[in-house]
Design a protein that fits this description.
Mean pLDDT: 93
CATH class of the largest domain: Alpha Beta
Shape: globular
Strand content: 25-35%
Number of strands: 24
Number of helices: 4
CATH architecture of the largest domain: Alpha-Beta Complex
Structural class: mainly beta
Distance between the termini: 29 Å
Radius of gyration: 22 Å
Strand order of the largest sheet: 5-4-13-8-9
CATH superfamily of the largest domain: Oxidoreductase, molybdopterin-binding domain
Bound molecules: the ligand Nc1nc2c(c(=O)[nH]1)N[C@H]1C(S)=C(S)[C@@H](COP(=O)(O)O)O[C@H]1N2, molybdenum atom
Number of domains: 2
Largest sheet: 5 strands, mixed
């Protein structure tokens, strides 16, 4: 069925509601109570053209800006290829990228003096490193929260794990020279605010020094052995594995070493913050009780088979997927075919390097014909497991790491 477009400002227009009702063949009762920015599930996959180079089965969550999700079964590759990588943009793509004259300026209160590097300077004057790094949008899983929260209604697929090549941010900062009062590094990119106002920043987030100085934190120009695709930050990107992917600044042109917690766009308010203690679903939380999300929580995804698979009684079903745990590693992976009553241990590989996802596999037989669900649950190196139902509700719908589940029919 062909669905009407949702309103670009993020809420549903009356005229769209009317045509949506006619497509559905029924009224959207309580449409007036939908939170601003909320996309009804029936509309959550927009029809339309994907950006060039993307796999045709990716799901468009919005097209201005581009927000495109990878269905779980398309995350099956060990290393996420560019055509299957989710897109999360806060603004419009930069225009007129000139690689030859691209520069990165490092400034801020806590540098001895401001320095500017060309791409060539970075490539020739520092050692190169390649790491496979998990980048998960903090809003991944948002569609699972109830009451619903506004923003892209991601299911499971706002996560990727590609190989990034570049230089260590640490090595470059060392060359610049830092003052002892440095606490945070904030990024700026050249993407354009949707208003078109060149003075407005789309997003400018950052990380504390301890994360900025880690071995795996890169200033990268290559992804999976090729130039970074335009959508994913060409020609230079800050890549920080294990933390909300929002800290991995695309189209990187400037870094600011701050003596305060960086105060760029989307560092304040409720952005990328969750309550510092559990709250009841739907609660209003005072700003002072919110904290910035740092390392992402333990999570896993079933990438094979695809939900809805049908098999014959007696057949063994191979299962596989990936799991990750922010700055930690995953120590155990389990699956259940009986709604969590009993669990079976999976085989689990070590990550290719720190902050890369880990592959798991299992094989299962079903006792009789019928409908089943397979649930997958990871446990991190500190003993924390994924929850089976919605975890801590929060006002912006971040870090939902509930178990991924797929449907199976045995005939
Ligand atoms: N300059 C810039 N960097 C950005 C963003 C952006 O809109 N502009 N989006 C951030 C967010 S919220 C996410 S989840 C990731 C998405 O990375 P990807 O589109 O390469 O998958 O990029 C981050 N870096
Ligand atoms: Mo994100």
């Amino acid at each position: 069925m062909s669905l009407p477009h949702h309103d670009r400002r993020g809420f549903i227009k009356k005229s769209v509601l009317a045509s949506l009702a006619s497509v559905l063949g029924t009224e959207l009762v309580f449409a007036g109570s939908m939170p601003a920015g909320y996309t009804p599930l029936v509309l959550s996959a927009l029809e339309g053209e994907l950006p060039t180079g993307k796999h045709k089965d990716l799901i468009i969550r919005s097209d201005r800006p581009w927000n495109v999700e990878t269905p779980a079964h398309l995350l099956d590759d060990a290393i996420t290829p560019a055509d299957k990588m989710f897109i999360r943009n806060n603004g419009a793509l930069p225009t007129d990228i000139d690689i030859k004259n691209w520069t990165l300026t490092i400034d801020g209160e806590s540098v001895n003096s401001k320095k500017t590097f060309t791409l060539q300077d970075l490539k020739t004057n520092f050692k190169h490193y390649t790491y496979q790094l998990t980048l998960e949008c903090a809003g991944n899983g948002r569609s699972g929260f109830n009451p619903p929260t506004s923003g892209n209604q991601w299911a499971e697929g706002a996560v990727s794990c590609a190989e990034w090549t570049g230089v260590r941010l640490r090595d470059v900062l060392e060359k610049v020279g830092l003052k002892p009062d440095a606490v945070y590094v904030g990024y700026y990119g050249t993407d354009i605010h949707l208003s078109g106002d060149p003075g407005k920043s789309t997003i400018s987030r950052g990380v504390p020094m301890r994360k900025a100085l880690e071995d795996e934190t890169l200033l990268a120009w290559a992804m999976n052995g090729a130039d970074i695709p335009l959508m994913h930050g060409h020609p230079l990107r800050l890549v920080v594995g294990g933390w909300p992917a929002s800290v991995s600044g695309k189209w990187l042109s400037r870094l600011s070493v701050r003596n305060i917690i960086h105060d760029g766009e989307k560092m304040g308010g409720d952005s990328y913050r969750v309550p510092a203690f559990p709250v009841e679903p739907g609660a209003k939380v005072a700003a002072a009780d919110m904290k910035i999300i740092e390392s992402m929580p333990v999570k896993s995804v079933i990438t094979y088979p695809r939900s809805g698979a049908i098999l014959e009684l007696g057949d063994e079903l191979p299962l596989r997927g990936h799991s990750w745990a922010g700055d930690l590693s995953v120590k155990e992976m389990m699956i259940s075919i009986d709604y969590g009553a009993t669990w079976q241990k999976c085989s689990l590989q070590n990550p290719k390097n720190r902050l890369a996802w880990q592959h798991w596999s299992a094989s299962v037989r079903f006792p009789k014909k019928g409908y089943y669900e397979v649930w997958a649950k990871a446990t991190d190196s500190e003993g924390t497991s994924q929850t089976m139902v919605m975890p801590a509700w929060n006002p912006k719908g971040y870090i939902n790491n509930a178990c991924h589940r797929i449907a199976i029919k045995v005939v």
